[in-house]
Design a protein that fits this description.
The chain is an all-alpha fold. The chain has helices spanning about 1-10, 25-35, 75-85, 85-90, 100-115.
Length: about 120
């Protein structure tokens, strides 16, 4: 009976991503992260240098819980947080970043698109 149950579990499809990501937005978001210097404080799996340690490493962001431990993990909240975290979450130690609203949305796409197997 366990063999049969194990076989049924193996047929389960892989989990689907929560977001419909745009590859062009992901690429623009990665460039915005580099331009804004986000890697000075955070490590990204596909940015070789710098690999900052002041903030958390940002991998598999789609799989994490609330943003900064309090904000619901939605694209709008993530974009608002990466652009101006003190406004999005008062008391945040992350400074406001020099990102346009569009760049912030692209950075959110990039963060959701980072896989944890790189």
């Amino acid at each position: 009976m366990l063999v049969l149950a194990g076989g049924l579990v193996a047929c389960k499809p892989p989990p689907q991503p929560r977001h419909d990501l745009d590859p062009a937005a992901i690429a623009r978001g990665r460039e915005a992260v580099i331009k804004a210097g986000c890697a000075a404080c955070h490590a990204f799996p596909d940015i070789d240098w710098p690999k900052g340690r002041a903030g958390p490493a940002l991998t598999a962001f789609d799989g994490v819980g609330p943003i900064a431990g309090t904000l619901p993990n939605t694209p709008g909240n993530l974009a608002a947080f990466v652009r101006n975290s003190p406004a999005a979450k008062p008391g945040s130690s992350m400074p406001a970043m020099p990102l346009t609203p569009r760049e912030a949305r692209d950075v959110a796409e990039y963060l959701y698109g980072i896989a944890d197997d790189r």
